[in-house]
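Convert to structure. Protein one:
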Amino acid sequence: MLRALRQILASQEVLLLGLVRMELLSGIRDAVYLRQLQSELRAYDDLPLDVEDYETAAAFRTACHSKGVQGSLADFLLCAAAVRREMSVFTADADFKRFARLVPVELHLPDLIST
């Protein structure tokens, strides 16, 4: 997975949601590592969101929940933002595979065996 992440980051074809940036930085107790990660992540722009992203996320959540597939609001917002911009979501989270069966999100799944 780390190899795949490094390749994507090296390509500079990366946009983050502010929520994803926050998740990546949350819970890091080592101040030195936190500052280093903050510095590295500043190289990547946050994707600006608009009303349509939130409306699409709500529709995705409703579609998934009606089929018994649960997910966080942040996950559905990430899917909606990616779909509207014809981008893929890089994730190792199995929840996204369930979402992708019900909404048209394209996933970039890392090889979890790689390091």
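Protein two, convert as well:
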Amino acid sequence: MDQSEDDLRTPWQRLRWARHRWQRSLGVAPNATAAAESLGIEPHTYRAFEGPEDRSKFTPINHQRAIDFGRKFKVSWAWLLTGEGSPDSRSLSEPQQRIVNAMRDASTAQQEAVADVVERMLRAM
């Protein structure tokens, strides 16, 4: 994952970046075969999505695959396809957006306190 997310120009570069980030977050070494198996597809099929367009076995990422990959690798499917927005940009519900907006000006200590309260409330429900 040598590239920053700003340098990722193509869907296949963004896909590879997302997979690397996801696997590292799990504490495992990036591995396309393991990712393919976790998605329930053949490794050679997965690698065709992650290779450059000039490769003979290249397969472009379609809308449904972008959704599947986005869910698995915890990134925005729209970002995978277009590069617009950020990997973590997901649509928030109105209540979620209200919470985010309310916490923007809070100190880190206040944000931690609010997060603790919300987590306790949700566990109690």
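DSSP finds seven helices and no strands in the chain. Residues 94-124 form one domain.
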